[in-house]
């Protein structure tokens, strides 16, 4: 076996020396080949598919705490496809206020940008004051804390992600939640909320000592603008 190795090494060495001993002719020809791809226009006449905030390659499984929410039905090149209704359960009135986490299991926002120009966009949110359904009593002192957010996209998207902005949103005030600078946030993006029990989406209400017991509802006003701000 040892002799075989020496013989092979000798043959390889001889081949190298023999090859280097003769001048070579180098061809200066150039050759062009082609890359081909077919592109089709995206049909903006149908709403975009709603995706799972934990795995955007899957369809949205629904949220038992947000039944009947099938998305916004928006169509076009830049759309707010889905926003969750946030539920915070039933709690006792406490002196000084309360801080309560959302009960949603699949709370999220879905945005799709099919414009192709890379101009970017901004998502804003204003949580309105809460109003009692029976007493019309209002709660104006407080804020919505979004908590730990998860930004995800389908696996076929190659765009860079948008950037998270404010997490603490005062009642009655608009603030930026997501911003897609130029050439980011293309295709579909999911902002998953209330996915981390260590930092959940939380409603904080202050100075509610004199608030009457009731079922309180406050609008979440979402705004998607066609440029970063």
UniProtKB/TrEMBL annotation:
<feature type="domain" description="WxL">
    <location>
        <begin position="29"/>
        <end position="228"/>
    </location>
</feature>
<feature type="region of interest" description="Disordered">
    <location>
        <begin position="41"/>
        <end position="76"/>
    </location>
</feature>
<protein>
    <submittedName>
        <fullName>WxL domain-containing protein</fullName>
    </submittedName>
</protein>
<keyword id="KW-0732">Signal</keyword>
<dbReference type="InterPro" id="IPR027994">
    <property type="entry name" value="WxL_dom"/>
</dbReference>
<dbReference type="Pfam" id="PF13731">
    <property type="entry name" value="WxL"/>
</dbReference>
<feature type="signal peptide">
    <location>
        <begin position="1"/>
        <end position="23"/>
    </location>
</feature>
